[in-house]
Amino acid sequence: MTTSLNSLTPVCPTHGVLSPVPGTGVQLSDGFWNTRRQLNTDRLLDHCDTWIDRMGWYDAFRVASGQAPDRTFKGKLFTDADVYKLMEALAWDLAQRPDPAREQRFAEITELIAAAQEDDGYLNTFYGPQGRDARYTDLAHGHELYCAGHLFQAAVARLRAGKDDKLVSTAIALADRLYEDYAAGLIASSDGHPEIEVGLIELARATGDDRYRDFAKQLIETRGHQTFEHHAIGHEYYLDDIPVRDAEVLRGHVVRAMYLTAAVVDLATDTDDAPLLETVQKQWENTWARRTHITGGMGTRHLGESFGSDFELTPDRAYNETCGAVGAIMVAWRLLLATGESHYADAIERLLYNMVATSPNAEGDRFFYVNPLLAREPAIAVEENEAPFRKDTQRANWFWVACCPTNVVRMLASLPAYFATVDGSALTLQQYSAGKIETLLEDGRTIRLAVTTEYPWDGTIRLGILETTGEWTLRLRVPEWAHGAHLTVNGEREDVPPGYTSSTRTWNADDEVVLHLPMKPRVVVPDDRINALRGTVAVERGPLVYCVESLTSDPDAVDLDRFRLNVAHDIEERPAHNLSDVAVALRARGVLADETYTDQNWPYQQASSTDSVATTEAVVELIPYYAWSNRGSSTMRVWIPTL
Amino acid sequence: MTTSLNSLTPVCPTHGVLSPVPGTGVQLSDGFWNTRRQLNTDRLLDHCDTWIDRMGWYDAFRVASGQAPDRTFKGKLFTDADVYKLMEALAWDLAQRPDPAREQRFAEITELIAAAQEDDGYLNTFYGPQGRDARYTDLAHGHELYCAGHLFQAAVARLRAGKDDKLVSTAIALADRLYEDYAAGLIASSDGHPEIEVGLIELARATGDDRYRDFAKQLIETRGHQTFEHHAIGHEYYLDDIPVRDAEVLRGHVVRAMYLTAAVVDLATDTDDAPLLETVQKQWENTWARRTHITGGMGTRHLGESFGSDFELTPDRAYNETCGAVGAIMVAWRLLLATGESHYADAIERLLYNMVATSPNAEGDRFFYVNPLLAREPAIAVEENEAPFRKDTQRANWFWVACCPTNVVRMLASLPAYFATVDGSALTLQQYSAGKIETLLEDGRTIRLAVTTEYPWDGTIRLGILETTGEWTLRLRVPEWAHGAHLTVNGEREDVPPGYTSSTRTWNADDEVVLHLPMKPRVVVPDDRINALRGTVAVERGPLVYCVESLTSDPDAVDLDRFRLNVAHDIEERPAHNLSDVAVALRARGVLADETYTDQNWPYQQASSTDSVATTEAVVELIPYYAWSNRGSSTMRVWIPTL
């Protein structure tokens, strides 16, 4: 398998089972994801640009290049990376939707960045001359190489858009500087926050310069020997507790874990290291089976923004950082390309609909940073134009630490590149959206399809063949939840289990393929070992996790602490109340416990003294989790106690 | 009600319903608490002294006084306080068990402290001349006034032991310096960590100098206006989110909350401020009813060592800092004295048996810092002579941050002072231990009692009257869990409900009073609003919370993830296996789910697809929670899922 090194796609492995269909080959039209992609183009990108400017993160480059006086505040070590992540997002977006004004803005920011680069190629606004700390003096916490990695990813985006410009040369000069300084022993370890590794490998792929991959390999292979400074959650915070080849599960800081793991998959793939790939697959499998929330969110713990131990999946304070979901998609996509196993695409779908889609609001000016599954009290409100220090708030315009917004915009800008893959003479649709897909098979034949669907609201996915030559294989992913799906090819029906359908034939332009996914609401039961979820259920429909939301502005709102779902009743589909972005809401029946229920002065009583509680019938509305907190202050539950 | 200002007791309110019987009036003999008090005298005090020396925390005083070169490490802002807490513990212990060598050591440390005091009375090893930071420059984080508060508490202990020595004069000089600097506007706020307030008020009580109380009042009343720097959990971390009179529940950092609240009770009591006292009672009531774990532990969250919101009582990672329990006892004891309500003494009993007793190991050389209710994986082992940075470990000799060991030793040293109270012509036994109690009633009559009991293993508490004159009232606390208790006075039986018994008569030296508390194991059910505990039960016996512990060294150990308790079976009493410190262990029956149970690649499945799991009968041993992790590496559960 070979892929053009510079297809418009974030990940171009040199080996592996599947090749990505480039973003240029996937045209999303009306529907769930195109709305978000368009919001990104129209609103989110400029929003990030404005806020980065307002926060002074461009000024940091001006100070470093001597264009502005000394920065007074030195606390934020990683804001260069936010500039680079925005540049990456702009590069993807410009490649698909050229816009001279935006191109001009891109060039301006490029000049700002390049001006801060020192003569020897070094670039970081926090380290260097002019009273700044010396290079490589705080690798554990300084985010110095981390920032470089994000510049490399932005440069790769630019290269793959066919623009070998100053951003690219700036990134390469920095990569060469770091490569040489590492070789010379000036850089004693990797960065406490992995990211340079994944940036270096993709830069190697995009430039053909294998030194960068070798550099990444050394950083990866030397990690895990507890060399970083102590941390309140131990060396696992940095993934520095054990070497990657010895680890059985992901742990520590979720985003660190995901960025590192993405690079490890890249390394294993490019170097044909089957044992390493198998190790990472096992790590992912254990993490997905025991350390992942139903939304795909990862990181139960606020302290260290970190994974809990197995089955520590508490909804109350689930941290579930948005960046962790972006990182998990990075890993799952690489594993999908490396192995061709559909469950990785299932994971991506879950993460996209229930984590990535949850972060921005419908207006495109606020983001969630953390994504708990329970809001017993309404989340803390954030004023307009406030960038809070704490992260467990309602959606905010920006955050004092703002890794998440820039991660969301780069993900949405490159989103079409995650929808389809080719291998040999097969095309596989990994995700579903209305639109058109055009790709080359490996032998050079061009295939064009039209997809018509209202997924995720409706389960019918209709494919028309627009361009075809000879025999080839069409595969469609049947999601793991879609038991009872069926496929019709020109009216001929076949039941299809979760996994991939496979239809090989000499296709004609009037062939019609329709995948029918069952969209009945599903009541989902948690593994009994998850303490925090025992005695509760969640409701899903299609790829969407639903939640009950109770608006504080609604005088008839149900007190979610007192609601108990009756699973004997069917869940009904209903139009959503006052949510334009939701086509299907649900209604569930249960009971509301009497208010006297709240009157105990000690919450642990002898079994015999627990009186049964009076209840009344009650009905609640369920909405997709991604849409919560869009109608104002509210309480919310994904996991609902049952009768 | 009046109390001698210098009885040997940590808290001497100028008003209130009850007066403490001084520590000198309570002689513990053989039994649960005397074992621990003796361990404190024999082992823990010297252990702390040795470790404070080893960690360089005495050296900080030597550096400040110019007796040693500059300290190189500046990270630990609060270690002066650990020295002071040890001094407080030594002072209480010396007052009850004079020991010339220990008295000499006390004098040596006093000299060390006094030498570091500046000419104007200021004293803190982290602030001052010789390149240190300037005074009062980081009140939010610097622990500057906090350290002073602990010195004041140590000085009070010394004063109440009748030793008006150099430690006392040093403390008073510092108190005067701070009082004047605050009055002059040099100290802009209180300390981010409350403690000075409770120290100041007790110093006012012990010296009769009301300026200190006024100073504390100002610090308390001006708090709550969000003046401290932002924190990841918000201003509530510092209890600086809302003024104390407006708060309805305790929140933020648990130890900060408890130290502040103790001072607020003191202030309300001494100033006869009934509305303020009522406010604090309500805060305690809400905290106890909704934010306290079954052990009395508080602080669900690791981030910020802080309270969760209501019913966020997750066992997996419950932080439950040992210091928080010491702080909660400080508050509950003050509320008990102020109100005479027995439930505060119930809370103290729960905290003592299940939190304070849990911290030190039986050998007296290791401590728990955090006290979770579930160890799904064995806690992290700590090598001998290692002081870990992280706190979620097995018991350790010491910690990099070591507030807890010194809090435990000062609590154990002053423990007898928490056992009994007098008011008018009544004596109340608040806690039970074998021993002797001697006190004056308010009219000056002397009463002496002998207590014979094997509590908490046996529920029989037998009292003999050793000295008596005329009529007086004997009250005994019947714990809130002791439904079905009865009292016999000279053989005459009376059923007694939870609360206080009350027997008024002209007692004779041969009168015998016996309280019978029912000690049958109790199965306890959590409030259904606690997500993390739904579908589980805990087992208690007497004042002790029990847990199941599964030793990793035991080849027949039960996998606690797979055990389900059958509540239909009685819990049986059994001798403990290999635990000399436990007289009664328990045995419970249930089932063990099949191992295949663990084989799912996604932990949330549709209800219909959840197969029933094969099980086999199983029996587990339960031991008191305080004794867990004493027999080596183990997993542990307080809350046990039921069938």
Question: How would you portray this structure in words?
Answer:
Two copies of one chain form a homodimer. The first copy, chain A, is of the alpha+beta class and 643 residues long. Chain A folds into three domains: 19-370 and 383-418, Glycosyltransferase (Alpha/alpha barrel), CATH 1.50.10.10; 420-516, Immunoglobulin-like (Sandwich), CATH 2.60.40; 523-641, no CATH class. The first copy, chain A, contains 13 helices and 23 strands. In chain A, strands 3, 14, 15, 16, 17, 18, 19, 21, 22 and 23 form a ten-stranded antiparallel β-sheet that branches. In chain A, strand 10 and strand 11 form a beta hairpin. In chain A, helix 1 crosses helix 3 and helix 3 packs parallel to helix 5. Chain A is globular and about 75 Å long. The mean pLDDT of chain A is 94. Chains A and B meet through helix 10, strand 14, strand 15 and strand 20 of A and helix 10, strand 14, strand 15 and strand 20 of B. Strand 20 (604-606) of chain A pairs antiparallel with strand 14 of chain B.
